[in-house]
Amino acid sequence: MENIQLKNHSGENEVAKTTNVASRKKRKRDESPYLKIRSKAANIFRNQIDKSVKTKKMSIERALDKVISGDYTKSRFLAEFRANVDMLLDSKRFEKDCKQHKLKPFNAATHIVFDGASKIELVLKNGLYPNYSTRLTELVEPLFTEEDLQKASTVISTQAETVDD
Known about the structure:
Blueprint: H1 14-23, H2 33-46, H3 53-67, H4 74-89, H5 92-100, H6 105-115, H7 117-126, H8 128-132, H9 146-164
């Protein structure tokens, strides 16, 4: 029986090959605190049996408690949440869809924003009914009041003005 030795004809040594594999691993993308809170809240809510608005609110509160640190506050989260709600409310089509299904646009928008940016885009592109036809009754009660979101937005803009001065 003949003893066969395999040779590396590529010109690379084995040590270099293993280090290249390690450097090709994907780096984890830094996520904004807003997205961390929103996705953590969605995951918490997804695992609950009770799918009520109260449970959705509690999942947001729990996610806020786990993620908030440093200068990122609940008010800042609510201000960013408000900006996304406003994006939906700026759409005449969204407003028309809500009225057609006897929903208050603000209330429905809070739930759609909770579901994420992809749902916001789908609703703006395709309308409310194709994306939420089986869940329209869930969109009746708001997650936050207009006053809560407005107050958070004014707190953030007031803080920004004091920083600029």
